[in-house]
Design brief:
The protein has helices at residues 2-33, 48-51, 76-92, 108-124, 188-197, 215-226, and strands spanning 55-65, 69-70, 73-74, 94-103, 131-137, 147-157. A hairpin with a 2-residue loop joins strand 2 (69-70) and strand 3 (73-74). Among the domains are: 39-54 and 158-169 and 176-205, no CATH class; 59-153, OmpA-like domain (60s Ribosomal Protein L30, Chain: A, 2-Layer Sandwich). The N and C termini lie far apart (112 Å). The strands form 2 sheets. Strands 1-6-4-5 form a 4-stranded mixed β-sheet. The protein has a two-stranded antiparallel ribbon with strand order 2-3. Helix 3 (76-92) crosses helix 4. The chain has 247 residues and is α+β, with helices and mostly antiparallel strands. 37% of the residues lie in helices and 17% in strands. The model has no long low-confidence stretch (mean pLDDT 81).
Length: 247
């Protein structure tokens, strides 16, 4: 009788183990079902725009040139630089254009001789307004001293100084560098270059206004459609055989 009474208990225990085994097997599958809703906080949600934000401030745009005069005329390189600078001032600048000539050293006389040509280059570049001419002392006369142009404008910059490492990436004496966070210098150089290469810093806030449509091209396309022709443009490109050049 004792054997008959223990059989149901053994069957009940076996069923419990089977249920537990099934639950253990289905647990990973249940976790996969909600994989698209898993949220992790192991990586801090900060990018370069938060670490080193680009700021727009009122500042000055600068240009240093090494002017040379040849037969009373400004050298072509400097003339092209100043004309481009004048075009940038006309588009984004305000106030006066400042020209600082070196005072002292062997380049002082040549800088003053180049001043009339510099003024003409500014006018040729479209700059209009008053030009403020001043001087600055040369610290080392043995070095070449440039002529410095500047004007007031909106300037894009970041406050961070790139190349600084206030904390170690993986310190052996503490666990400060073991955190899974972006290091301090991450993205600093790319943000600095983006700020420096933006022609009009106001583009970082919002786009400029649309320019008027090309009425001639629009009319040509409409006339082609009315005539039953393809309104597209056929660009004829003639490729040359580089290996056959000079034969």
């Amino acid at each position: 009788m004792s054997q008959l009474r223990s059989a149901p208990r053994r069957n009940s225990s076996a069923r419990k183990w089977r249920v537990m085994l099934l639950l253990a097997l289905t647990a990973p599958l249940a976790a996969c079902g909600g994989a698209d809703r898993i949220v992790t906080s192991s990586v801090e949600p900060r990018d370069v725009r938060a670490l080193h934000p680009i700021e727009l401030t009122r500042g000055r745009v600068n240009l240093d040139v090494m002017a040379e005069t040849r037969g009373g005329e400004l050298d072509p390189r400097t003339r092209a630089q100043v004309r481009q600078f004048a075009g940038q001032y006309r588009a984004n600048g305000s106030g006066d254009i400042a020209i600082a000539l070196p005072q002292g050293g062997p380049g002082e006389a040549e800088a003053r001789a180049a001043l009339p040509g510099l003024r003409r280059a500014l006018v040729a570049g479209g700059a209009r307004g008053y030009v403020l001419v001043s001087t600055y002392p040369v610290a080392n006369p043995s070095l070449a001293s440039p002529i410095r142009f500047s004007y007031a404008s909106v300037v894009a910059q970041i406050r961070s100084r790139c190349g600084q490492w206030p904390t170690d990436l993986a310190s052996g004496s503490s666990v400060d560098g073991w955190e899974n966070k972006p290091y301090w210098n991450f993205g600093c150089a790319s943000q600095q270059m983006l700020a420096a290469q933006t022609a009009d810093p106001r583009d970082l806030i919002g786009p400029a206004a649309d320019t008027p449509a090309d009425s001639h091209m629009r009319g040509r396309a409409i006339d082609a459609v009315r005539a039953g022709k393809d309104p597209g443009t056929d660009w004829l490109v003639q490729n040359s055989n580089i290996g056959g050049l000079g034969n």
